[in-house]
Amino acid sequence: MSGSSNTLSLEPDAVWRALEAIPDPEIPVISIVDLGVVKDVRVDGQRVHVDFTPTFMGCPALEAMRSQMEDAIRALGAEPDVHVLHDDSWSTDRITPEGRQKLGAAGFAPPAPRSAGEPTLVQLERGPFRCPWCGSSDTRLENVFGPTPCRSLRYCNACRQPFEQFKTI
Q1: Is the alpha carbon torsion for 162, 117, 121, 88 positive or negative?
Q2: Nearest 5°: CA angle at 64, between 40 and 13?
Q3: Is the pLDDT of residue 57 over 80?
């Protein structure tokens, strides 16, 4: 009886596609890839290494994200090695253009690019924050503290709808 070769020929693109199917546990309209928390994917034989940076280190969804990534990699027939990067900081600039569109379509106002300048309290109170429902910039800050540290609550004076604004981080 000859030994059979049990090698896996897995391309990194297949891993990225599998990870793109994982919704963010707190905002399921956007995938973890579109959110920009997955930083790198490397395939080494049957082992897949994934580096990811959560939106913040105290993120309650950290273990859920890690577990979902491991499950997706195992479903591809590979052994996962998912590593949380503690020496890297996530930024809202990592949200993909597709992710920003998905957030807007779901009623979340995407963050302004950091290249627009460092955020200040004044910027959170006034600025070009458009309502995701009607597109008006006639909005006001209701509460700088939203349901998560990366979001604040805003109100649109034009259509009278509340919405969550992603803070520029």
Answers
A1: positive
A2: 30
A3: no
Quote the CA–CA distance of 112 and 128 in Å, as a whole number: 9
30 within 8 A of 24, measured Cβ to Cβ = yes
**Dihedral over alpha carbons 73, 10, 51, 100 (to 10 degrees):** -80
Look up residue 108 and give its amino acid. F
Contacts of 76 (CB under 8 A, 6+ apart): 10, 14, 15, 18, 48
Q: Is the entire prediction scored with pTM above 0.85?
A: no
Q: What is the mean pLDDT of residues 104-126?
A: 66
d(CA 140, CA 152): 11
Angle at which helices 12-20 and 62-75 pack, to 10 degrees?
130
Q: Which residues of 117-144 are buried (b: 16+ CB within 10 A; e: fewer)?
A: eebeeebbeebebbbbbeeeeebebeee
Mean pLDDT computed over 61-76: 95
- Radius of gyration for the alpha carbons in the chain, expressed in angstroms and rounded: 19
- How much is the pLDDT for 109? 87
Residue 85 DSSP label: -
